[in-house]
């Protein structure tokens, strides 16, 4: 079963069960508290709180989607067997239409009957001082014949919110062949950070408070790439039909980790640019520039065995039928402009990197600021010279630089 067939089967399954198919939202969310869309529920956030009415907007209380997602926390991990920056999230959602029983029954039916997969075990929330144990989900799973029900705490079986505040609740995770494939979130609460009386700052402990939601909701998520790995019986996500054509364009002699980074990053770059992100030195543009320059450096160090355009063409071929917003012309134009801009300084930067006797955070930042060498490349190529270099220190140095630059602008234009 191909990834496209899995995607279509999921949408069809829920459409036949009273869910409206909602297109993916942009990777740039309408939420200033987060940089990117990281989960399927983000575009539905205000339906859970009652600010928006699903029946008015969708004619139904239930929805299903395949959401484009991007997670910056995984950039440094890309190259192993499971981490991605850009991925697709399958999800079914309900805003007062149904709750735990139906959500669990749907998950069980889709996994065991439509995909013909065995469920190894499931997990439910064990409870704590603030939220009671989810005995209801445990009972429902057992009634369906799933006897291996494990219990876990808040770190594993309580999800949300996305951003600084929002809907959240206990979860139930479904494991198939040892892999977590589905996370069912039971949105029962609204999480908000407690604010001091003057409403100007968070209290000393940053205490989070939970209040019950008037409308209980369902928010589920399955990573398409991970699900395809399980369905197709592959040992890693990079051997599924989504990534295999990309990897075949790269030479066999190229290190596996490098090939995986390139395969991941060209997808992320294509989708970010298509959703309106431009390379820059701040926020989403900075993340895009990191991906683009990592791609360029890894290809350069490998002797440029394949032109970037050929990698992007494979992404378009694989994805544009489902995501018609992919803009081939703009993606190639933006990448080429950044490539031309970066090549002028790359060689100088690599020479400076090779000459440096040691690489501390200041010298690493100088290589970034003066030559555009990403932190990851300095760390990787620096070897023993960069053994004490840490990402958090580099980010702190970057933040200091931003503050100095901002102060200079204010002094120039602010008057005092």
From TrEMBL:
Every Alanyl-transfer RNA synthetases family profile domain range: 1-416
GO annotation, cellular component aspect: cytoplasm
Keywords (A to Z) from UniProt: Aminoacyl-tRNA synthetase, ATP-binding, Ligase, Nucleotide-binding, Protein biosynthesis, RNA-binding, tRNA-binding
Domain of life of the native organism: Bacteria
EC number: 6.1.1.7
Pfam families: tRNA-synt_2c
Cited Gene3D superfamilies: Bira Bifunctional Protein, Domain 2 (3.30.930.10)
PROSITE patterns given in the database record: AA_TRNA_LIGASE_II_ALA
GO molecular function, one term: tRNA binding
Gene Ontology annotations of biological process type: alanyl-tRNA aminoacylation
Family of this protein: Belongs to the class-II aminoacyl-tRNA synthetase family.
Protein name, UniProt field: alanine--tRNA ligase
Organism this protein belongs to: Candidatus Jorgensenbacteria bacterium CG10_big_fil_rev_8_21_14_0_10_54_38
Organism lineage string: Bacteria, Candidatus Joergenseniibacteriota
């Amino acid at each position: 079963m191909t990834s496209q067939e899995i995607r279509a089967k999921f949408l069809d399954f829920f459409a036949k069960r009273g869910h409206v198919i909602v297109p993916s939202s942009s990777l740039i969310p309408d939420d200033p508290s987060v940089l990117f869309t990281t989960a399927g529920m983000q575009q539905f956030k205000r339906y859970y709180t009652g600010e928006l009415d699903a029946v008015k907007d969708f004619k139904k209380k239930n929805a299903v989607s395949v959401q484009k997602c991007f997670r910056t926390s995984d950039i440094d991990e890309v190259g192993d067997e499971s981490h991605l920056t850009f991925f697709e999230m399958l999800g079914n959602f309900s805003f007062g239409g149904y709750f735990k029983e139906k959500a669990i029954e749907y998950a069980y039916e889709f996994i065991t009957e439509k995909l013909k997969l065995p469920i190894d075990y499931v997990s439910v929330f064990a409870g704590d001082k603030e939220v009671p144990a989810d005995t209801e989900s445990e009972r429902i799973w057992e009634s369906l014949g799933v006897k291996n029900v494990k219990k876990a705490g808040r770190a594993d079986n309580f999800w949300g919110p996305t951003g600084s505040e929002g809907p959240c609740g206990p979860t139930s995770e479904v494991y198939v062949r040892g892999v977590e494939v589905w996370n069912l979130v039971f949105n029962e609460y609204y999480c908000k950070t407690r604010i001091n009386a003057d409403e100007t700052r968070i209290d000393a402990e940053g205490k989070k408070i939970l209040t019950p939601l008037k409308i209980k909701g369902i928010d589920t998520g399955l990573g398409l790439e991970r699900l395809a790995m399980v369905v197709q019986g592959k040992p890693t996500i990079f051997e599924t039909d989504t990534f295999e054509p990309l990897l075949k364009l790269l030479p066999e002699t190229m290190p596996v980790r490098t090939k995986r980074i390139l395969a991941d990053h060209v997808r992320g770059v294509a989708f970010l640019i298509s959703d309106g992100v431009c390379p820059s030195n701040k926020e989403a543009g900075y993340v895009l520039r990191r991906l683009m320059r990592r791609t360029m450096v890894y290809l350069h160090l490998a002797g440029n065995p394949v032109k970037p355009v050929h990698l992007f063409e494979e992404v378009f071929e694989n994805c544009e039928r489902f995501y018609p917003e992919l803009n081939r012309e703009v993606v190639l134009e933006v990448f080429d402009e950044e490539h031309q801009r970066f090549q002028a300084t790359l060689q100088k930067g690599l020479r400076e990197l090779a000459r440096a006797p040691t690489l501390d955070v200041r010298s690493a930042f100088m290589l970034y600021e003066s030559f555009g060498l990403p932190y990851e490349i300095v760390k990787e190529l620096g070897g023993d010279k960069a053994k004490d270099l840490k990402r958090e220190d580099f980010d702190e140095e970057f933040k200091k630089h931003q503050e100095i630059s901002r102060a200079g602008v204010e002094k120039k234009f602010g008057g005092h």
